[in-house]
Amino acid sequence: MALSREQLAMRVAQELQDGYYVNLGIGIPTLVANYVPEGMEVMLQSENGLLGMGPFPTEDAVDADMINAGKQTVTAITGASIFNSAESFAMIRGGHVDLTVLGAFEVDVHGNIASWMIPGKLVKGMGGAMDLVAGADNIIVTMTHADKHGNSKLLPQCTLPLTGAGCINKVVTDLAYIEIRDGRFHLVERAPGVSVEEIVAKTGGELVVPEHVPEMQFTNG
């Protein structure tokens, strides 16, 4: 069974480490803030100028002035700081973010990512994604394995305009956890109840499948 958006966020949250500074992109990545493992200290950074994002607020705790880069209302943890976007991008471009989590339209076997425009559709702009993929060594993409028409989003070569080239090495989809190395996709884990055959059928680029593919384990929700 394909993972829900919340389960995707839970699986990505398992990649967090104590002391990390982490940027969460718009969409599914923002949900990771709700699943930081208990007892772990992680500073979540938003390119609009907030370091120390907490979980999404309950209805009675909403502050319309406290938002993330996607204009969603958020909370701030103890020790958080607020600054302007120029300082935020200096932090990103200076390589001070330990992990970046992004959504994407396409990822290919060369680690290229296309995440900002589909020709013929309304383009809202690149946002901070180009800076994030250039300034971070550790990037995780989380997305659905295929689009709404059933077309694979893990390709031999991206067909859409690129956000960054050769920068992605980990992808968590609703079907699988995949690593990218040596110009190929490598299947590491599969979603509970999802067969290897389904993952292979829905992966456009070359996929290396080991003899045993464990199911994902969820320890935080």
Automatic annotation (TrEMBL):
UniProt keyword annotations, A-Z: Transferase
Gene3D superfamilies named in the record: Glutaconate Coenzyme A-transferase
InterPro entries (alphabetical): 3-oxoacid_CoA-transf_B, CoA_trans_fam_I, CoA_transf_AS, NagB/RpiA_transferase-like
Enzyme's top EC category: transferase
E.C. number: 2.8.3.5
Gene Ontology MF term list: succinyl-CoA:3-oxo-acid CoA-transferase activity
Domain of life: Bacteria
SMART domains: CoA_trans
Matching PANTHER family: KETOACID-COENZYME A TRANSFERASE, SUCCINYL-COA:3-KETOACID COENZYME A TRANSFERASE SUBUNIT B-RELATED
Similarity comment text for this entry: Belongs to the 3-oxoacid CoA-transferase subunit B family.
NCBIfam families: pcaJ_scoB_fam
Name of the protein described by the UniProt record: 3-oxoacid CoA-transferase, B subunit
